[in-house]
Amino acid sequence: MFDDKSRYKGASQYQRTDRQGRTVSIVQVPEEQSEIFRGYHQRIQGQRLDHMAYKYINNSAGFWRIGHLNDVMLPEALSEAAVIAIPKKK
C-alpha cells in the first residue's frame, strides 16, 4: 500500500466504522524517527520542499523529514523561512 521509502511502510493498520457507518482503514502512527542534522539550506523565493528533499535526501516524498527536523507540524509552515535545516541522507 505504501512506497518503500514511506514512513508508513510496514505500519500496522486496523478497521473502524465512522459516524456514517462506513468501514475505514486507519494506519497506526509510526514511531518517531530521529533525524541527523546535515546542514542549512538558504531558501530562495519559490523553492519547494519536495525539490529540496530530492536534492538532499534523494526522495521528493521525504519532505516530511525536513519538516520534522525543523519542528513544524505542517511543511507549509516553512514556505517563508529564509534558512531551513536539512537532515542527513539515510
Cα(first) to Cα(last) distance is 22 Å
The shape, in one word, is elongated
Report the average pLDDT across residues. 90
Strand content: 15-25%
Q: Which spans have pLDDT < 50 for at least 5 consecutive residues?
A: none
Major sheet strand order: 1-2
> How many DSSP H or I helices?
2
Work out the radius of gyration.
16 Å
Largest sheet: 2 strands, antiparallel
Give the total of beta strands. 4
Helix content: 10-25%
Q: Domain count, please report it.
A: 1
- Compressed to H and E, one letter per element, the order equals EEEHHE
Tell me the structural class: alpha+beta
Detailed description of the structure:
The protein has one domain. Strands 1-2 form a two-stranded antiparallel sheet. The chain has a two-stranded antiparallel ribbon with strand order 3-4. The chain has 90 residues and is of the alpha+beta class. It has helices spanning 49-57, 63-69, and strands spanning 13-17, 23-27, 37-42, 83-87. The protein is elongated, with a radius of gyration of 16 Å.
Give a quick summary of the entry:
With 90 residues, this protein is an alpha+beta fold.
List keywords for this structure.
about 20% helix, alpha+beta, single chain, two-stranded antiparallel sheet, about 90 residues, two-stranded antiparallel ribbon
Q: What's the SSE blueprint?
A:
Elements: E1 13-17, E2 23-27, E3 37-42, H1 49-57, H2 63-69, E4 83-87
Antiparallel strand pairs: 1-2, 3-4
